[in-house]
Amino acid sequence: MLRLLCITAHPDDEAGAFGGTLAHYADRGVEVSVVCLSAGTAARNRGSARSDEEVAALRTAEFDASCRFLGIKQGEVLSYCDSKLDRADFHAVVGDLVLRIRQLRPQVVLTFGQDGGLTGHPDHAMAGAFATQAFHWAGRPDRCPSQLTGGLQPHAAQKLYYATADFKLPDRMPTSPPTVTARIEVGAARFEQKIQAFMKHKTQEPLFERLRKNLGNAPTTEMFHLAATRDPQDAKFETDLFEGVNEE
């Protein structure tokens, strides 16, 4: 069984940043999972919610609907503070992600780069930093050793990718995106599926048109940077994130 884990910061990231690729691999029979670090309670767009607790409930339900629409087998929203991931306990967040990697045992991990993705959001950058360390630690028995009970074993995922692009958004803070080393052609139908998945996040309706506009430079392609591999290899351009992956 091929398995892919995507680590994000907010509900709706799974659709807006990764949706075409997640749907593409789910359609291919890959077991796709998403771990989202926060419930997005700092969002300006809050729907009908009157408290942070109601926002969390609404956005988690929207995340679940989006995941189902994209064919994601398992989605989980953790409870770290939205817009404060740079102040979260590093070892706690990384430990939680190490645990999920050891439980889900993906061959491929997707996340944001330290630039924060197209939007340059600080939470995206931190999600990438936490996920990167978890990728490296999950396969080491000397990291988070207290997790290794009841049969749980270290797991070294084979490839780590950052979301990136070959263009920038002009109305955002300066970023330094990772180089493009992989392009996944998701096609027009999956691009529209990605947009429709984002629209499952009904609290974020004011962003719907902006998303379509922002992605108009590459509507049928999602781009990634191969950041790390378990087994040493030369750099090369890819059109399949599972190229060279061994089923385990």
Architecture blueprint of SSEs:
Layout (H helix, E strand, L loop, with lengths): L2 E6 L4 H4 L2 H9 L3 E8 L13 H19 L3 E7 L9 H15 L3 E5 L9 H16 L21 E6 L17 E4 L1 H12 L9 H7 L6 E9 L19
Parallel strand pairs: 1-2, 1-4, 2-3, 4-5
Antiparallel strand pairs: 5-7, 6-7
Word description of this protein:
This protein is an alpha/beta fold. It has a single domain (3-229), classed as 3-Layer(aba) Sandwich (Rossmann fold). It has 7 helices and 7 strands, in the order βααβαβαβαββααβ. The chain has helices spanning 13-16, 19-27, 52-70, 90-104, 122-137, 187-198, 208-214, and strands at residues 3-8, 31-38, 74-80, 108-112, 159-164, 182-185, 221-229. It has a 7-stranded mixed beta sheet with strand order 3-2-1-4-5-7-6, with helices on both faces. Strand 4, helix 5 (122-137) and strand 5 form a beta-alpha-beta unit. The chain is globular and about 45 Å long. The model has no long low-confidence stretch (mean pLDDT 95).
- The number of helical segments is 7
What is the rounded distance between the termini? Answer: 7 Å
- Average per-residue pLDDT, rounded, comes to 95
The gyration radius over C-alpha positions equals: 17 Å
Number of strands: 7
Assembly status: single chain
Give the full name of the CATH homologous superfamily: LmbE-like
As for the CATH topology, it is Rossmann fold
SSE order in H/E notation? EHHEHEHEHEEHHE
Question: What fraction strand?
Answer: 15-25%
> From the 3D coordinates, which CATH architecture would you assign?
3-Layer(aba) Sandwich
Unreliable segments of 5+ consecutive residues:
none
The assigned structural class equals alpha/beta
Shape: globular
Domain module count: 1
**Roughly what percent helix?**
25-40%
> What strand order characterises the main sheet?
3-2-1-4-5-7-6
* Main beta sheet: 7 strands, mixed
CATH class membership: Alpha Beta
